[in-house]
Amino acid sequence: AQSVSQHNHHVILSEAASLELGCNYSYGGTVNLFWYVQYPGQHLQLLLKYFSGDPLVKGIKGFEAEFIKSKFSFNLRKPSVQWSDTAEYFCAVNRRYSGGGADGLTFGKGTHLIIQP
Amino acid sequence: KAGVTQTPRYLIKTRGQQVTLSCSPISGHRSVSWYQQTPGQGLQFLFEYFSETQRNKGNFPGRFSGRQFSNSRSEMNVSTLELGDSALYLCASSVTGAEQPQHFGDGTRLSIL
């Protein structure tokens, strides 16, 4: 069974600091990769996704992630965080079927990010 | 455009009972997936429905079942409730399936006494 590991469960940063959240997955086949974010009191929403092509993907609010196939990693980055980035961040993976479609998402346990003003 | 709507928002049940949760996807979305979120296990995939057919299934016991109607609305049923079923149940929809980004609802918080 595939699994997703997020290395940091809690991260505390000051505003303007740079951010990198690690994500590694275990499945060796063709995958789709996602980062979702959950702001306090809100539902999960998509931050960015990778399906194919350029391994460096850009998402909303200045976030980006790099897919490194050889390392089975999809780390999330932001050069300068803001107080409003305080949220729970989830990495998710699903396996792409050769005939089209994909299976359900496997999520990491999440990283609780707190940005101090 | 309305988002994914889940009802009810909160439920309290006792062990042995059964429960039905409802999910209305975004208009035009035909795929509905269900997830269970707990502090210990995190977010876990239950099943996905597309065009009234279960297309994918996670690793949950048969007490967990679902269905989808012709208007794409979906229900999830849990029978013979156990204490460990206490969780936030999330529904997500997409146009054609999990190969696309999914849009999540706010969830139904189920508490088992």
Structural write-up:
The complex is a heterodimer of chains A (117) and B (113). Chain A is mainly beta and 117 residues long. In chain A, 0% of the residues lie in helices and 50% in strands. In chain A, the strands form 3 sheets. In chain A, strands 2, 5, 6, 10, 11 and 12 form a 6-stranded mixed β-sheet that branches. In chain A, strand 8 and strand 9 form a beta hairpin. The N and C termini of chain A lie far apart (41 Å). The mean pLDDT of chain A is 94. Chain B has no helices and 11 strands. With 113 residues, chain B is mainly β. In chain B, a hairpin with a 3-residue loop joins strand 4 and strand 5.
The largest chain-to-chain contact, stated as pair and per-chain residue counts, equals:
A-B, 25 and 28 residues
User: Overall mean pLDDT score of chain B?
Assistant: 95
Rounded to the nearest angstrom, the radius of gyration of chain A is 14 Å
In oligomeric terms, what are we looking at? heterodimer
Helix content of chain A: under 10%
Number of strands of chain A: 12
| Helical segment count of chain B | 0
In terms of DSSP E residues, the strand content of chain B is over 45%
Mean pLDDT of chain A: 94
Topology pattern of chain A, helix = H, strand = E: EEEEEEEEEEEE
Number of helical segments with 4 or more residues of chain A: 0
Question: Which word captures the global form of chain B?
Answer: globular
**Main sheet specs of chain A:** 6 strands, mixed
> Radius of gyration of chain B over alpha carbons?
13 Å
Distance between the termini of chain B: 37 Å
How far apart are the termini of chain A? Answer: 41 Å
Strand content of chain A: over 45%
